[in-house]
Amino acid sequence: MKLKEIAIGYIDIPLVTPFKTALRTVNSVNDLIVKVTAEDGTEGYGEAPPTAVITGDTKESIEAAIRYYIAPTIKGMDLEDLPAIMQKLEKCLAKNTTAKAAVDIALYDLYAKLQKKPLFRLLGEKEPELVKTKLETDLTISVNETEEMVRDSLLAVEKGFHVLKVKVGKGGAKDVERIREIRNAVGKDIVIRVDANQGWTREEAVSTITAMEDAGLGIELVEQPVSYHDFKGMQYVTAQVETPILADESVFSYEDAVRLMEEKGADLINIKLMKTGGIHEAVRICDAADQFGVKCMIGCMLESKVSVSAGVHLAAARSCVTMADLDGPSLCRIDPYEGGPVYEGPHIFLKEDNGIGITGVPVKFETI
């Protein structure tokens, strides 16, 4: 069975509230959707969110990468030999991980459908007894003035969320105040994860995290405290504080993940498909985490249900994944898709539908 056709389109979904981090502010999900079609008409879907401040990818660069490099390289290849397609996909151009991820996800979706299996069952074949059918995601609290963040946190708790991922990174002392007031408001039983999005220097990170520890704020982890390329800084912060450090923007590849684990540059790894270039490389990182005994989070950018569903399937399939930051669909005002994992508040339920489960995508596609 050969890959017959590749098509692209765009979708725009408004957010419930603006998404604000130390790096950017976004009001809607405006992503490229990829559709791949086999000779028998079976379709697979992928998604690419332009996140220039993290991946370097824009809408224009993603489309150009798929249109002029990826599609001509892999079209017509044998879908039964998925590793060969992934090798071609990886080597046809440097970087452009978001474009690669969208096509990778679509191919995995299509491949699983042709195998007549849910993707999480296919990815979990090495540990079938450990495969999960229910996950719990955190919910992101955007960085704002403290009072607004407290209100957003209380609203999240009212909706049933027990784990909050609080964005900080815009001032050490102010960040401590934000977390202190949120903790006072939500109580001691709510899990708080702190995400600095590279917003601190090494010294700011250590002093801010230490202040949170001294105040007894009960932080589960701190994510990406310093710049993505500052591996020595990650190592320094990890060694200086008691709170576990989660690497995010520092991990784009298997090599990045192994370096961090070998150098003890982080206690935990956040795997995001848009950084790894898709499921194929993410699975390699999971394999490395198993070898090092490191626990992982599966996270997402500001994505809608197509690519987040792929992350859900990976999280469900691998035992090294103990945390989920897969709240993209929860941040969207509407769910325009048919099928896929079911979101009920913080809980995500996987069904036994083939592939990632998405059956309807309301997008006007252009074949390329």
Automatic annotation (TrEMBL):
Q: Which Pfam families does the entry mention?
A: MR_MLE_C, MR_MLE_N
Cofactor: binding details: Binds 1 Mg(2+) ion per subunit.
Q: Which UniProt keywords apply?
A: Isomerase, Magnesium, Metal-binding
The cofactor required is: Mg(2+)
Q: What is its EC number?
A: 5.1.1.-
First and last residue of the signal peptide: none
> Which InterPro entries does UniProt cross-reference here?
Dipeptide_epimerase, Enolase-like_C_sf, Enolase-like_N, Enolase_C-like, Mandel_Rmase/mucon_lact_enz_CS, Mandelate_racemase_C, Mandelate_racemase_N_dom
Record-listed substrate binding positions: R24, T140, K165, C300, L302, D325, D327
Q: Which residues bind Mg(2+)?
A: D195, E223, D248
Enumerate the GO terms in the molecular function aspect: magnesium ion binding; racemase and epimerase activity, acting on amino acids and derivatives
Q: Give every Mandelate racemase/muconate lactonizing enzyme C-terminal domain span.
A: 146-244
One GO biological process term is: amino acid catabolic process
**Catalytic residues in the record:** K167, K272
Q: Kind of enzyme, top EC level?
A: isomerase
As for family, the record states:
Belongs to the mandelate racemase/muconate lactonizing enzyme family.
In Swiss-Prot or TrEMBL terms, this protein is called: Dipeptide epimerase
Q: Which organism is it from?
A: Fusicatenibacter faecihominis
